[in-house]
Amino acid sequence: MMNKLILAVLLMSTIFASHAEVYKWTDSQGVIHFSDSPHDGAETVKLPQSQTYSPSTPQKDLEPQHEEELDAVEHKPYTKIAITQPHNEETIRNNQGVVSVSVALEPALAQGDKVQLLFDGSPLGDPKPNLSFELNGINRGSHTITVKVLNSNGEELITSDTITIFMQRPRVNMS
Q1: pLDDT tens digit sequence for 53-99
Q2: Would strands 32-35 and 114-119 be described as parallel, antiparallel, or unpaired?
Q3: What is the rounded distance in angstroms from the CA atom of residue 20 to the CA atom of residue 14?
Q4: How many CB atoms lie within 10 A of CB 160?
Q5: 91 - beta bridge partners?
Q6: Can you count the helices (H) and strands (E) in the chain?
Q7: Do 150 and 80 touch, CB atoms closer than 8 A?
Q8: Residues 108-152: pLDDT tens digits?
């Protein structure tokens, strides 16, 4: 128990080493004491210097140096866009009329660009900065889905092929 106390005091003294000196002495019964104030017969404990860490600063060399390079990085043209889910001419059976739409895009969606979903030829909702959509309440029948990528000015950058889905809701007007 005493060894644990001494160890704890030593460890704590290293924490506060920069603020004060540490003194050590042994009393008449052989108990070792530590203090931050001097005592008769006490000796100064020499503590190792505390370790510090300073993270390195990021290198600026990795960033494009010219505006032309910056534009080339930000506006790399898209080479592929496709609706990966649902598949073309897929029949979807869902009582709530829910359809999940997933899009594959190469290269990845650039910052500031957004994806617009077209349902039966009309924009559905606002363009979003992600590649998955969930449609709710889709009525029975045949429907078309297309997606396109728009830049921050609303200009169309690339458009997918249109797919056709068939929604079947086996139970109509049932809760």
Answers
A1: 566 655 555 555 555 544 444 567 999 999 999 999 999 888 888 99
A2: unpaired
A3: 10
A4: 21
A5: 166
A6: 2, 12
A7: no
A8: 998 889 999 999 999 988 999 999 999 988 899 999 999 999 998
Check: CB of residue 163 under 8 Å from CB of residue 145: yes
Q: Give the Cα separation of 50 and 18 in Å (integer).
A: 8
Residue 78's alpha-carbon distances to 32, 61, 81, 115, in angstroms, are 74, 27, 8, 12
Residue owning tokens 């019964």: 29
pTM beyond 0.85:
no
Q: Note the CATH number of domain 76-168.
A: 2.60.40.10
Q: 163: which DSSP letter? A: E
Nearest by Cα to 150 from 94, 100, 81: 81
Report the amino acid identity of residue 130: N
Residue 131 contacts residue 106 (beta carbons within 8 Å): no
| Alpha carbon distances (Å) from 126 to 40, 76, 117 | 79, 23, 8
Instruction: Annotate 50-94 with DSSP letters as a single string.
Output: PP---PPPPPGGGS-SSHHHHHHHHTPPP-EEEEEESPTTEEEE-
The domain ranges of the chain are 2-45, 76-168
